[in-house]
Specification:
With 175 residues, this protein is an alpha/beta fold. The protein is built from seven helices and five strands, in the order H-E-H-E-H-E-H-H-E-H-E-H. The longest helix has 15 residues.
């Protein structure tokens, strides 16, 4: 969790802790079981238990773009960057607690479509929180997939205010 998060909920070790987050109880976060998980219902948590920021995974092989996205979103979100699609999938094997996954569609190692299909095979609920980023110039296969699958897309380049608004709309739409 980012040190920028407001503060974590009370810690208590035990078998019901969130994977990768030693001592943070999954039942207190409302995260027990990740399949089909919706973002945390912050209204259900009392104000004396400040909640960590929403989590976003950015998968983009262009480090400058990924850092720019993180810089724009970090005031309202805990942003995790993975520059390699394979590294992102390895992370998702053990840490699926993301409110949104922003994935570049055109990458050399694996395409965004391949990443999406791997995420869907891993956890359909998680795949429902994927949005693609594209700079245009899509192949007919990519364009057809985006149209057929109904996966949201964000056009690059983005203006900071537009990116923040679109991300908020996506997260709010899934809660």
């Amino acid at each position: 969790m980012s040190s920028r998060a407001v503060r974590l909920l009370p810690r208590s070790p035990g078998p019901d802790t969130v994977p990768g987050r030693t001592g943070v109880r999954s039942d207190r976060l409302g995260l027990a079981g990740t399949a089909g998980r919706k973002p945390l219902n912050r209204e259900a948590v009392s104000t004396d238990q400040a909640v960590a920021l929403t989590r976003i995974l950015v998968i983009d092989d262009d480090a400058a773009v990924a850092k720019m996205i993180a810089h724009i979103l970090r005031t309202a979100h805990d942003v995790v960057i993975e520059g390699s699609p394979r590294a992102a999938l390895a992370r998702l094997d053990t840490d699926r607690l993301f409110d949104l996954i922003l994935c570049d569609i055109t990458m050399p190692e694996l395409s965004g479509i391949q990443v999406y299909e791997a995420i869907a095979a891993l956890d359909r609920g998680l795949a429902a929180r994927v949005a693609f980023m594209t700079g245009g110039g899509l192949s007919s296969e990519e364009d057809g997939f985006l149209s057929d699958a109904g996966v949201p897309r964000l056009a690059k380049p983005f203006r900071p205010a537009e990116l923040r608004t679109r991300v908020r709309e996506l997260i709010d739409g899934w809660s």
